[in-house]
Amino acid sequence: MKLKQLEGLLGDLQQFSNPKVELEQYPTGPHIASRMLFTAENSYGDITDKVVADFGCGCGTLSAAASLLDAACVIGFDIDPESLETAALNAEDLEVEIDFVQCDITKLELKGRTVDTVVMNPPFGTRKKGADMEFLSAAMKVASQAVYSLHKTSTREHIKRAALRDFNAKSAEVICELRYDLPKLYKFHKRKEVDIAVDLWRFEPRQNN
Amino acid sequence: MRLITHNMLSCNIKGVTNGFPLKIEAEKVIEKEVDFNPDFLRHMFAKIEWKALVEAARSMGYAELPEDSPDAAAIDSADETFLRKLHHALLELHLEEGALVCPETGRKFPVNKATFWTHIDSVDQSGGSASMWTT
Fold first, then answer.
1. A127: which chain B residues are within 8 Å (Cβ-Cβ)?
2. A36 Cβ partners below 8 Å, 6+ apart?
3. According to the model, what pLDDT value does residue A201 have?
4. Between B123 and A188, where is the model more confident?
5. What is the mean pLDDT of chain A?
6. Which sign, positive or negative, has the C-alpha torsion A180, A76, A134, A208?
7. d(CA B76, nearest CA chain A) in Å
8. A–B CB contacts, 8 A cutoff, strictly below
9. B64: distance to nearest CA of chain A, Å?
10. Residues 164..203 of A with a Cβ closer than 8 Å to B: which?
């Protein structure tokens, strides 16, 4: 599948109808999602024929991208039932198989190391402090091959230190810097649109367990 | 939900020491064909909890998997029969409606429209949320 085609398909997905601010629900746009997964597969071979988990999947954009790039199995995890309903509809529209699990990711313990790759666009920690780190910690416990995640560029040094020192990362690399366009979604947003600098990270867990 | 996913899930309610594997109560099971990928299956085989898979498949109406996990030689051989059974059990059986049950507490977690729900309360607007994982 070509990048443009992937981006096009992701652009047709339904997004949050009723976004919950305390969960930092923002859609992962097709531009970012397609590039993130395309790079994960074309540069690193982390998607096709792999078991891929999407942490904080929301409406399932990253999950859908992984499926479209022929992951062997995709599982989306999210705490919000409404988003998962939308995610399930999206999967049906695209005619891809995605298993969804509704749970609190910070309390999740998966058996074994069946998951190869975790992809995620986690909360940045603007509502619940430290949420970004909680997601990263959870992902690093589960993935056997790689974790792809988006974090604010302003947190770069902090993330790198935590990943290598506390979360069992063998490597922590910023693959590219992206501009995340956030449309005015919530009442408290003053500007019509805002642009945030985010890093696309690739983490490799150490091979123990 | 497919059994490849079920094979990873355990009950994490506080106090539960062995919440794996979750028992399956199947109300609606459907089968969907998927492309056969022997390399992927060989790679997965080493990571699967075998007994849990056999029992789960049986609950879904599929009893073709051998009780005892075959040895590595059987997996590497050219005979595809075993791999085809593994393929079917892991990837082609879907639990559409039913429940996963904690083996220790008997707590039931619903599966509907193929989604597995650990709790069905909507998220508390004040920022907290009730979670079945730690009750």
1. 127
2. A62, A65, A119, A148, A150, A200
3. 98
4. A188
5. 92
6. negative
7. 18
8. 98
9. 22
10. none
A105 vs B contacts (CB less than 8 Å) = none
Topology adopted by domain B3-133: N-terminal domain of TfIIb (2.20.25)
**Which tens digits make up the pLDDT trace of A111-135?**
888 999 999 999 998 888 899 999 9
Residues on chain B touching A134 (C-beta within 8 angstroms): none
Of B1, B39, B115, the CB nearest to A84: B115
Q: In sequence order, which residues have a C-beta less than 8 Å from that of residue A112 and are 6 or more positions away?
A: B7, B8, B47, B48, B49
User: How far is the C-alpha of B60 from the C-alpha of B3, rounded, in Å?
Assistant: 9
**Per-residue pLDDT averaged across B51-70, rounded?**
94
Do residue A97 and residue B2 have CB atoms under 8 angstroms apart? yes
AA identity, residue B113: K
* Beta pairing partners, A169: A205
- Chain A interface test: which of B42, B111, B115, B119 (most A C-beta within 10 Å): B115
Beta strands in chain A (DSSP E): 51-55, 73-78, 99-102, 117-120, 146-152, 169-183, 193-205
Asked if residue A24 lies in contact with residue B123, where contact means CB atoms within 8 angstroms, the answer is: no
Instruction: Quote the pTM value.
Output: 0.91
**Tens digit of each residue's pLDDT (9 = 90 or more) over B11-48:** 878 888 889 999 999 999 999 999 999 999 998 998 99
| Interface contact A102-B115, CB threshold 8 A | yes
Closest approach of chain B CAs to the CA of A72, in angstroms? 8
Report the amino acid identity of residue A127: R
Q: B119 contacts in A (CB within 8 Å)? A: 102-103
Element (H, E) at B44: helix B38-45
Residue partners of B134: CB distance under 8 A and separation at least 6: A107, B12, B13, B14
Residue A86 has pLDDT above 80, yes or no: yes
Helix (H, G, I), strand (E, B) or coil at A186: coil
What is B45-100 written as a DSSP string? Answer: HTTS-HHHHHHHHHHTT---S-SSPPPHHHHHSS--HHHHHHHIIIIIEEEEEEEE
- Minimal CA separation from B106 to chain A, in Å: 18
